[in-house]
Write a structure and sequence with these properties.
Length: about 280
């Protein structure tokens, strides 16, 4: 079967080959050093204008470029939630922060006294997340944690769709939760905590708002944060039936209702077909 390569990938592959050719006369070690230096400097910084000021993202992969470029269009409901539900001075927990797009946007919105706790277990995403936080003036407001939230404390395999920064749909725990194992060919050991255990152990600020953007274990995260999320005023969760079936969706909604949240009527009407649903205290 023929494999079609995009123009950007073809040019990128050509430039990589050119770098190798230029490095060849330098000898093995100096050539490798030059290629490593070129690679580290080649990643572009994408500057994203927002209503709260510009954000900077270092894009070390094509996926990271795509995520930054589609920031407003990919999840308008999440942007609306940050703009209209989150308030200045609040604390936001971003569970599944990826490379930090929404964590940094929320940090802009929060102003003085605000804080973001960004949780991301995938190593490549976490590295990009911390670099992006450092690039922006709101860095002091964002605390990054390389771990997964679930319903128990354990070390487990994180099943990855890709090792490129910006990729998503990774699953903490079992590869057969959600997509098939073939769709997640890479693994990485990661630490997991329930939100309640994490908050009690490390004495971090409790959330006023929680964003959960993970795959397959949303219900475990919600139930593992019964105490920690008790004071939260809103919750935004990706509810995507996918291969887990309607039963997963309904059990997740029950877990959210058990914490006293109801779906926000205005956003349900405004964004009826979006995958992220916003819940507020009933």
């Amino acid at each position: 079967m023929a494999v079609r390569m995009s123009g950007a990938r073809m040019i990128g592959a050509g430039l990589a080959g050119l770098g190798g050719a230029l490095a060849w006369p330098l000898g093995r070690w100096h050539g490798l050093r030059m290629r490593a230096e070129l690679a580290s400097r080649a990643a572009p910084t994408y500057r994203l204008p927002t209503g709260h000021g510009a954000l900077a993202f270092r894009c070390s992969s094509a996926e990271a470029v795509k995520a930054a470029a589609r920031f407003v269009y990919d999840e308008p409901e999440t942007v609306w939630w940050i703009d209209h539900v989150v308030q200045a001075g609040d604390c936001v927990w971003d569970v599944g922060a990826n490379v930090g797009l929404y964590a940094l946007y929320a940090a802009q919105r929060l102003g003085e006294g605000g804080a973001v706790m960004a949780f991301e277990p995938a190593a490549d995403n976490y590295a990009a997340l911390t670099r992006n936080v450092a690039l922006n003036p709101t860095a002091a407001k964002v605390s990054c944690f390389c771990l997964a939230l679930s319903d128990e404390t354990r070390a487990a395999e994180l099943h990855l769709t890709s090792q490129d920064a910006g990729r998503a749909a990774h699953v903490f725990g079992h590869a057969d939760e959600g997509l098939t194992a073939e769709a997640r060919p890479h693994t990485q050991t990661a630490l997991g905590f329930s939100a309640d255990t994490f908050a009690a152990l490390f004495k971090v600020r409790r959330p006023d708002h929680v964003k959960i953007d993970v795959d397959s274990i949303e219900e475990r995260i919600v139930r593992g944060g019964a105490e920690t999320f008790a004071g939260a005023r809103s919750l935004i969760v990706e509810i995507n039936i996918g291969e887990s079936g309607a039963g997963h969706k309904e059990s997740l909604r029950r877990a959210i209702a058990d914490l006293g949240f109801t779906e926000h009527a205005e956003t349900s009407a405004r964004f009826p077909d979006r995958r992220n649903r916003i819940f507020v205290r009933g």
